[in-house]
Amino acid sequence: MNDDLTTGQCLCEAVKFRKSGTFEAFFLCHCSRCRKDTGTAHAANLFSSKATITWLSGTDRIRTFTLPGSRHAKSFCSTCGSALPIALPGADVLVVPAGCLDSPIDLRPTAHICVADRATWDNDLDAIAKMDGLPG
């Protein structure tokens, strides 16, 4: 992934950013907190201890929620709710939700994590029907 061309934005396109530096890991987290954050089976987040984010627009719309008594935090657009990059408090690591990137991601997921906490319905998903669009 060319660092100079790695860009992303929220769904309403109000918040835009550019990432500089490389990602070191790409985790698919199945913990209950990440499932609640995303409303899906897992969060897909890229991690870096060296990369930085330059906000290009919409910084006034960025909100952050930190779960009290934990290091679990999420940044999001206050208009559309899209997940946005966050520097985790006290961890010196940048976390970038894969879905907010517009540039291609060359790094394959490193691992599924917290699988012991995965949703009961998150099994054998490759066996169900696949559709290229919405059900008709």
Reading off the top of the CATH hierarchy, the class is best stated as Mainly Beta
Strands of the widest sheet, in order across it, are 9-10-4-3-11
Overall mean pLDDT stands at 92
Q: Helix segment count?
A: 1
Overall 3D shape: globular
> Structurally, how many domains make up the residues?
1
CA gyration radius, whole angstroms = 15 Å
What gap, in angstroms, lies between the N and C termini?
A: 36 Å
Which spans of ≥5 residues are poorly predicted at pLDDT below 50?
A: none
Report strand %: 35-45%
CATH topology: Metal Binding Protein, Guanine Nucleotide Exchange Factor, Chain A
Total strand segments: 11
Structural class: mainly beta
3D structure, described in words:
- With about 140 residues, this protein is mostly beta strands.
- It has a single domain, classed as Metal Binding Protein, Guanine Nucleotide Exchange Factor, Chain A, CATH 2.170.150.70.
- The protein has one helix and eleven strands; from the N terminus they run E-E-E-H-E-E-E-E-E-E-E-E.
- The strands form three sheets. It has a five-stranded mixed β-sheet with strand order 9-10-4-3-11. A three-stranded antiparallel β-sheet has the order 1-2-5, with no helix packed on it.
List keywords for this structure.
136 residues, mainly beta, Metal Binding Protein, Guanine Nucleotide Exchange Factor, Chain A, five-stranded mixed beta sheet, three-stranded antiparallel beta sheet, 1 helix, 11 strands, 5% helix
